[in-house]
Amino acid sequence: MTTQPQARAGRPRSEKAEKAIIEATxxxxxxxxxxxxxxIEAIAARAGVGKTTIYRRWANKEDLVVDALATMxxxxxxxxxxxxxxxLIALLDVVRREVGHRRARCVINVAMSEADSPxxxxxxxxxxAMEPRLTAIRRVLSRGRANGELDPDLDIDMGLALLSGxxxxxxxxxxxxxxxxxxAERIVDHALEGIAxxx
Length: 199
Fold this sequence. Notes:
Blueprint: H1 13-30, H2 40-47, H3 51-55, H4 61-70, H5 84-99, H6 102-113, H7 121-147, H8 156-173, H9 183-195
């Protein structure tokens, strides 16, 4: 008796649907649709699912947008803790990779531009995605100030603003297209010229 080969197990249907919904949401925002104009109907049509499929997973479109934005995050890298410069480059490069491509830049710019909206997708995204990265940069700067790599009088908040502000500027208002791969290194080196400990 010949046995029939077993069919390969594919992704669960719910996982495929969820991925389609997330991608549809990001695509619509990347095409310039603001969060206020975005509708569950449009997302469902683009994803090829029913509205009830979306509402089974998310209570409202704001929750869906925040979760969709979160899929673009990378985990923070382990830091060697031996060099302020190396650790800062590692941290900034994570953000560069997250927002470095044209589609991702467009999506995040649209979301952040609506930070003052009633349900504040931008603020929720900032708290979920950006605050942990800023906290990690702050720790590296504080360590460098304490161990003598950086100026002992360094204003940590100002150092944080110099580093993160430069990256945000390139992400929102810099040249169109993908961000250059050496951007994090260039930002850190320029900033360290001003905040490194003087001989």
